[in-house]
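Fill in residues.
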């Protein structure tokens, strides 16, 4: 009788885990792998909306060259949201 009272709570927790927690962990691992693969010459977009080319890498920061005036900006690696360098651009170089 005790298990019948606890079963709905366990079921709700399992659904919560499968729908919310597991996908977030996968996204986090994918994002961390993307950050680990950053290299000079990659075109990136930051969470603040800056788009630029990586010109230097540090332990926890990167230096971007931002158009149109080729400004040099230092941002944290954690602020990078996406890498827009395509494979075709890499092969062309």
């Amino acid at each position: 009788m005790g298990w019948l009272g606890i079963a709905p709570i366990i079921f709700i927790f399992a659904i919560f885990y499968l729908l919310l927690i597991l996908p977030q962990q996968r996204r986090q691992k994918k994002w961390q792998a993307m950050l680990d693969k950053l290299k000079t010459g990659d075109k990136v977009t930051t969470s603040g909306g800056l788009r630029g080319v990586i010109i230097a890498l540090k332990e926890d920061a990167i230096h971007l060259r931002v158009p149109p005036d080729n400004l040099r900006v230092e941002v944290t690696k954690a602020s990078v949201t996406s890498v827009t360098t395509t494979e075709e651009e890499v092969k062309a170089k």
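The chain has two domains: 1-36, 39-93.
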